[in-house]
């Protein structure tokens, strides 16, 4: 009998990680049943407000003897109860079990949880219809992610190898040899990606929080991810490591929408015209984008760093394709940019003063007149329009790795441009809102 197990919402900024519980359980349960795949790390809608970091949930599937199922369920619930950070007000774990095949309807629920907002009640209803058993700890919000992770229909996938620390080291600085990570990057990038930030010269595989993760190595080839891990040197013990199959780096959250359809929590690709000059508030850069159905504010927030410079080059009249997540910011619906592509650039016109017609000298503005600095010649102020080069290229711009959503596909990977290209050549389908 196939047994699917989903777990979510066990961690808080103070500690724990659902993948750690998943890795322990995968090891433990593999003694009782036959794993049918690697455990799965499923990133759901990156725009939901409840997430601790990357809105990740974990699922795994085993072929098991029917009489062992109660014991397996007890083990899973015991681990979650023991290890989840239940004291944190925002940690509301959920565990889901489903026996047999995944119903098609549940696949659709999973895609909704990837792209929209789903309530706990909707998850309960979907679980009941699918014949899944769910367990809620506290508010039990985790059943949304747990159920969605079980049924996630992989279209594309990548891998992440997660290595964990000994509990006595949790909360202390991670001892990962920097040079060995740069060496690993030289050997394996882009088969493993987001290893380092070459501009800041920083290591990206090690997080900074109090969670049990020592490093996470992401890649498109399972073998290369494992080889890359061999290269990295640690100055603290590795307690455990586990390779996950994941929807990270797939862009599968993005669907093409018209601007008028956008609602909070959507992840979308839109095509429109920049309607007025950009403006800045704090260190965030904003502009407005319009299509025939509506207008939306678009933001490149401070953490996107140098990416903001490209956004500042956009001018009213530019036609662009923009991908990102929709959220309310200061009460205004805002598309938080992940990638953009300039389809058509409006001409950039600057008005210059002419040279003096009598001596060729430089003219100076004097109210409605121009006066030559050299010979004093005066003439009505008539400026000459000059078309300036636009310093935006016809290419896709993306946010830097440390500002990128886990689920966004980096441009360096094959297919990183696909969602934008689909919108460009009109291959996309507009996805009707399901609410
Ligand atoms: P991780 O740290 O593992 O990357 P996370 O900690 O950022 O993930 P969680 O702590 O799992 O995120 O919190 C996310 C919560 O949001 C979970 O309770 C999950 O069930 C819920 N959730 C996930 N997707 C949706 C959605 N589309 N709509 C509503 N709730 C969702």
Describe the structure in your own words.
This protein has about 425 residues and is an alpha+beta fold. The protein has helices at about 20-30, 70-85, 105-115, 120-130, 140-150, 180-190, 220-230, 305-310, 420-425; strands at about 1-10, 35, 40-45, 55-65, 95-100, 135, 160-165, 190-195, 195, 200-205, 215-220, 240-245, 255, 265-280, 285-290, 295-300, 320-330, 330-345, 350, 365, 370, 380, 385-390, 395-400. The strands form five sheets. Strands 1, 2, 3, 4, 5, 6, 7, 8, 11 and 12 form a ten-stranded mixed β-sheet that branches. It has a five-stranded mixed beta barrel with strand order 14-15-16-18-17. Strands 20-21-22 form a three-stranded antiparallel β-sheet, with no helix packed on it. Strand 15 and strand 16 (about 295-300) form a beta hairpin. The chain is elongated and about 100 Å long. The model is unreliable at about 430-435 (pLDDT under 50). The chain binds adenosine-5'-triphosphate. Adenosine-5'-triphosphate (ATP) binds near residues 9, 11 and 145.
CATH architecture of the largest domain: 2-Layer Sandwich
What is the typical, i.e. mean, pLDDT? 95
For the largest beta-sheet, the strand count, sense and barrel status come to: 10 strands, mixed
Poorly predicted spans? 430-435
**Secondary structure category:** alpha+beta
Question: What is the tally of beta strands?
Answer: 24
Instruction: Predict the CATH topology of the largest domain.
Output: Alpha-Beta Plaits
Helix share of residues?
10-25%
Number of helices: 9
Instruction: Please identify the top-level CATH class of the largest domain.
Output: Alpha Beta
State the domain count. 4
- Could you tell me the radius of gyration in angstroms? 26 Å
Approximate shape: elongated
Percent of residues in beta strands:
25-35%
Which ligands accompany this protein? adenosine-5'-triphosphate
Measured distance between first and last alpha carbons? 35 Å
């Amino acid at each position: 009998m196939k047994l699917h197990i989903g777990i979510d919402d066990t961690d808080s900024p103070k500690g724990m990680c659902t993948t750690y519980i998943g890795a322990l359980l995968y090891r433990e349960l593999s003694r009782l049943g036959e794993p049918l795949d690697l455990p799965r790390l499923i990133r759901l809608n990156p725009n939901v407000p409840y997430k601790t970091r990357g809105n990740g949930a974990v699922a795994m599937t085993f072929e098991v003897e029917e009489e062992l199922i109660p014991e397996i369920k007890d083990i899973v619930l015991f681990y979650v109860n023991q290890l989840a950070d239940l004291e944190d007000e925002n940690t509301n774990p959920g565990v889901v079990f489903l026996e047999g095949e995944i119903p098609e309807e549940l696949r659709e629920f999973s895609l909704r949880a990837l792209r929209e907002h789903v309530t706990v009640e909707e998850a309960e209803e979907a679980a009941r219809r699918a014949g899944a058993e769910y367990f809620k700890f506290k508010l039990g919000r985790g059943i949304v992610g747990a159920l969605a992770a079980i049924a996630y229909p992989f279209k594309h996938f990548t891998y992440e190898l997660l290595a964990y620390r000994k509990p006595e080291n949790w909360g202390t600085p991670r001892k990962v040899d920097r040079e060995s990570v740069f060496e690993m990057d030289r050997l394996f990038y882009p088969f493993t990606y987001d290893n380092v930030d070459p501009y800041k010269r920083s290591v990206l595989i090690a997080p900074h929080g109090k969670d049990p993760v020592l490093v996470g190595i992401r890649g498109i080839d399972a073998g290369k991810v494992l080889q890359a891990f061999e290269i990295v040197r640690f100055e603290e013990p590795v307690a455990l490591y586990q390779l996950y199959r994941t929807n990270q780096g797939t862009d599968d959250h993005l669907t093409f929408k018209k601007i008028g359809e956008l609602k909070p929590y959507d992840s979308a690709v839109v095509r429109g015209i920049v309607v007025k000059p950009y403006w800045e508030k704090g260190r965030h850069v904003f502009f407005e984008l319009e299509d025939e159905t509506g207008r939306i504010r678009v933001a490149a927030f401070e953490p996107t760093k140098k990416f903001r410079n490209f956004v500042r080059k956009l001018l009213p009249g530019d036609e662009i394709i923009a991908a990102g997540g929709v959220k309310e910011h200061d009460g205004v619906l805002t598309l938080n940019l992940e990638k953009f592509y300039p389809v058509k650039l409006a001409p950039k016109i600057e008005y210059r003063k002419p040279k003096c017609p009598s001596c060729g000298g430089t003219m100076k503005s004097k109210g409605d007149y121009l006066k030559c600095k050299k010979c004093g010649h005066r003439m009505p102020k008539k400026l000459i329009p000059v078309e300036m080069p636009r310093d935006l290229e016809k290419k896709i711009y993306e946010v830097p790795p440390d500002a990128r959503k886990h689920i966004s596909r980096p441009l360096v990977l094959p297919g990183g441009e696909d969602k934008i290209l689909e919108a460009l050549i009109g291959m996309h389908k507009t996805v009707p809102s399901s609410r």
